[in-house]
């Protein structure tokens, strides 16, 4: 099985985990297996490139990558009270009315800019933090395929 390693900010992983949890909530048996397969298809990258963009004042940051079924776009926005929200747009899973699923979550803690490298396989993630020197630059970052 070929996997792609992604460098994503901690807040992006937190947003993906919250999305996974909400998407799988209440599903059992066959429905749970179908939803996990759909998450795998919709969230697993087919390209080793992740694009990151930050606003001039650092109020918003966005990352996106391509999957077999479309795109995953994740953004972090700072609210007026200093808290952060994570926004995720998944084009590979049809939501109500056939539109892409878009969800917003209140991030539990303000995640810093450090990146984490993870192997994305469905709803499960194996974690590994790279050394500080291996943190990818904010521009598009090609990553190794294994």
Please characterize this protein's 3D structure:
The protein has helices at 10-24, 29-43; strands at residues 5-9, 49-54, 60-67, 70-78, 84-94, 100-106, 115-121, 124-128, 141-142. The chain is α+β, with helices and mostly antiparallel strands. The chain has one domain. The strands form 2 sheets. The chain has a 6-stranded antiparallel beta sheet with strand order 6-5-4-3-2-9, with helices on one face. Strand 5 and strand 6 (100-106) form a beta hairpin. The model is unreliable at 112-146 (pLDDT under 50).
Uncertain ranges: 112-146
Structural class by secondary-structure content: alpha+beta
What's the rounded overall pLDDT mean?
76
Count of individual domains:
1
Spatial extent as radius of gyration: 15 Å
Beta-strand portion reads 35-45%
Give the H and E element order. EHHEEEEEEEE
Number of E-state strands: 9
Please describe the biggest sheet, giving its number of strands, its sense, and whether it closes into a barrel. 6 strands, antiparallel
Distance between the termini: 9 Å
Query: What is the strand arrangement across the widest sheet?
Result: 6-5-4-3-2-9
The count of helical stretches stands at 2
Q: Sum up the overall morphology in one term.
A: globular
The share of residues in helices is 10-25%
